[in-house]
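Q: Structure for this?
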Amino acid sequence: MQSATRKKQATKVIVSSVTSKNQKHETLNFNGELYMKVDRRSFLGLGLGAVAGVAVSPVGLKLTDDSSIWTQNWPWTPVPVDGRVNYEKSVCSLCPGSCGISVRKIDNRPVKIEGLSDYPVNDGGACLHGIAGLQYLYDPARVKTPLKKNGDKFEKISWNDAIALIAEKLKGIRTEGTPEKLACITDKDQGSVSGLFRRLLETFGSSEFYTMPSLESYLELTASTFHGKGNTIAFDLENANFVLSFGAGIIEGWGSPVACFKANASRKERHAKLYQIEPRLSNTAANADKWIPVNPGTEADLALGLCAVILKNNLFDGSATINFMGGFNKFNAMLKRDYSLSKTAKITGIKASEIEKTAKMFAKAKKPVAVFGKGRGDGAQSLKELAAVHMLNCLVGNINKKGGVFVKPVSQYLNFPSQSMDRVADAGFGKNKTGSTVNQLFEKIDKSAQPLIEALFVYNANPGYNLHDSKRVKKTLDKIPFKVSFSSLLDETAMLCDIILPNHTFMERIEDVPSGAGFAKTVVGLSKPIIKPLLNTKHPGDSVILIAKALGGNVAKSFEWANYDQCLESVTSNIWSPLSKRGFVVISKGVPAYRPLVNVSFLAQNPATINAKGDYALTLIPIDNMRLINTGTASSPFAVKTVSDTVIKGKDIVVEINPLTAIGLKDKGFATLTTPLGKARVKININEGMMPGVIGMVRGLGHTFDNKYVSNIGVNINDLIGQVIEPGSGLDAAFGIKAKLVAA
Amino acid sequence: MSELENKAKNDSTISAGEKIAQKIKDDKGLGQGVILFIIAFVVCFAGSTLLFPKLLYSKKEQPFNFDHYLHVYEAGDCEACHYLREDGSFSGIPKLETCMECHVEEPLGVTDDEVVFVKEYLAKDKEIPWHVYAKQPDCVFFSHAGHIDTGARMDFNECHGPIEETKTSRTYEENRITGYSRDIWGKNIFGIKKNSWDRMKMDDCAKCHKEETGHQGYCFQCHK
Amino acid sequence: MTQDNHNNAYKFGMVIDLDKCTGCGSCMVSCMSENNVPFKEDESNKRDSITWMRVYKLTNGKSFPDTEIAYLPRPCQHCGGEGDHGHSPCVSVCPATATDYGYDTGIVSQIYTRCFGCRYCMGACPYHARYFNWWDPKWPEGMEKYLSPDVSPRMRGIVEKCSFCYHRYQAARDKAYYHGDKDHIKEEDYQTACTTACPSNAITFGDLNNPAHKVHQIVKPDPHPDPRNHHVVGKSRNPKVFRLLERLGTNPKVYYLSEREWVRKQGDHYLEGEWDKIKNHHGTTSHG
């Protein structure tokens, strides 16, 4: 240490002498005089003493230590606050799966969402979207306060003013005597909040209540087609030993996703088989015992072809078919005529021997089940396909048997008090609905010169993103003079609305959450507020009650609850006690005891198969990817992060094609995708898992609202596919569209 | 010497005699230089040792004075407020909820501090923003369960000192560069330790671990 | 505590059933949310996208319609190094002692405040399990409120990786201390976030040294060095179980299980004909 100090001193001396050398004479003289008083040596002594003093002091050591610590702990790196760990149970309502969740909190701050053990739907497992649920709570795209549109921009508005404004508009419509011109679109027709919207509409005088296409709506439609109105269908996947899936993405988010994952995972132990029929090697197909690639859009034909084999070989359940009504013989004759093995093979692109073998395996299996609803089951579907697949279940007689299909009444656990109707309400409500589906509604509004709908409520739905030909849907929405969005996020549809009444997210509110989407049990869970509302939002139930009260008259009389909490407790009074204590109630489980009638008249009429629109050589079909949400909400930043670079690359969407389709196209190269509806720039992924002639594009991208992590990536496939309404059902049955790909 | 030679070379206008005279005077200056060196050394050393901590640490008063001595007397023991939870984690500084087990609405005693507590925090249901003397940085995981009765049976004084005897809360000093409490480095700016609780740097943990367990421990034992 | 990897210590490990794995991504998100992993605007450049747990897609390379897919989740492999003596590839090269091998748990640590970002460890890791923070993490305003205090958020310029959710081990140990049984961490008390999140129950986690643990029962690790390559220790005696690049002798504690031969074959690179010669060697038959 000492020698080091000395060395330092020596260096100092040399430096100072060099300086003196370069100085001018005059200065030197002047300096010389100065030295006479405080000479150089003294000066140096002073300086060196000071340096040494500081050097020996702890300053240097301490500053070195502190600055190195500083570089390890940048002040801008967040330090999470510690506290008591506690867990709260709730139910996730991000998708129809309705899984139980356990939220880990530090004091009052939620930090992690996990699956809830022993919950009858998911028993501990959770999907990535549920786990990332906290990112929705803190989503930068959340609507922070009620908004009112002024020109192109939104302005803040108080809750009182917003409700008063809505009530004033609606009163105007009612005064005109046209209450049926108020419509409402929600995600589902189950649970008390949807019930409140429906009640508001009915007491106002309108039957224009629509839900977005969902697996649940398809299940109810199929059940009512075969077994009468008010029924729904569930699949007992956890007990079936041969699952014949017509493109149902059992591990891609179909149905109640986590329950399906569990049923699928137990397949190995149960020695159960899964055969997957679809044009693309999806994860479900990859995980299945066998993947049967089928020409896109010919699943219905394949199902009927399989029916034909079963009937021809007398492999059907005779005791089941005696219950058939509506023209079983006619149906049989139609199969013989149109669905011979060779014809089916030609249409579907599957070898005749394979079709025959599969049909026989299915019919001979102990507990077979045929599953419909391709992809996640919430996209476009044709009733012909749903019915044809379900017919397989009817033929093998697995209805209401363990491991088969459960046909049961739609669960009615809510008890709303009778509603007060006045003359206007009765007259309006008595009128016919504009369309049988939301797709038909938009088509009719679009084509009509008169304004069919004057006011629209949108809750938990994003038709401006989610329906086919979404550009046209947005234009149609513009034709509706007054639109109110009940949304937590500023999504595509909310952006087109005149008023936005922001909701609490599912983490901030209490609500009954019924299971559905083909899950074998019926469970009602209670979603609970895990955290106090962060923003100036309200419970959607409260918003509806406030609007009803502001409307006055018979409508207000039908909403006599002080708030939603009181309403929930009263309408769920049958189950409230166990629901609030345990967090869930199992309404039904096990095999339904009755034997429903089977009406085959729809199929017996031999409905037409829907073809893809356009003249191009290739067919564009949507892909459902488990890691992306494809309903109105955008995926969370975490979910987007997990997505492969063969799906998203930068801001580009990647489409899958077979090498045989890729003439003139390079892997990872760019191309222009053209459909009759428009063009899009896409990246190419050459993939052996895709059927030649088919282009696969993921659903759930191309959102346009303000969230830099999840928006403006790729294109919305719904901008490229146009709707094709199936005659008879009113469903949009566009499974895809013809397209071409040219290198860009 | 070289210094003088250089000077002589440059000072061509000064005569040789003058140079010698100057040299004699300079010799006096050498003694002066040493004295000045010593003075400067002492002043700077003392100055930086005394002044430096004042510059380095910002002083923060606690929201109000807390009488540990009184509370230990009234509550019986430390564990009444600082305890292990059932999951084995340590409760740390109590939240208002714990205070409210005794303090309900009205002050229990007569001190001004308690009036501040009741009016500013209890009445407003606001957590008290205590400055924590023993707070370790975010990267540190410390298991109280592993060190106290349930584990190594260490006395809390070993790390926290005789805090139960204090009647007033001392001023909290925060390092302006690191944001750490002064207690981590220790009150002594040289880092000299007299008591076991004087300093709580990683080396102090490692030393004790080495002595007690034969191994200073793996990184993850104390880091997160 | 002795520098001994075999006696009286835990050896936490994992076995992942690739036939059950569906590539759903729950493990990835559960890991990110558990460990305060940041996200940024563009995460499609997978080389700078921090995913402690990453799910790789494997294909059998055959053309349509015979092509097959499997998914392979890859956390840090927590290598025991040659001979399983704790000289993991990354630990041996770290000039800052920012990563070490815990002989008490078999877990390879990563200390963010100690790391100065030289990235030697990233070069040394044969599994690409380590990630560099090219940028400071940033959360949208307010979102930092969901950060967990159990794992310290990282800063730019340092390396991070999977820790087998070590904070859960710390919590389990605290609990064990509290209940007076510090030497016995129960199997259910220490499970990683990916394990508990998996909706298909494809991941099994536990103590490879403990015959009562499920992971030991599935893996049946061979305590003896592989007679054909003595660097390899803990080879599975289950013919369906393999490790990634096992021949390197890195001795990972993450095992994979698959009935499909083509999947098992992708665990390493093989010369032509080599696979057929070695595919049936599965540890010594004797029990240790």
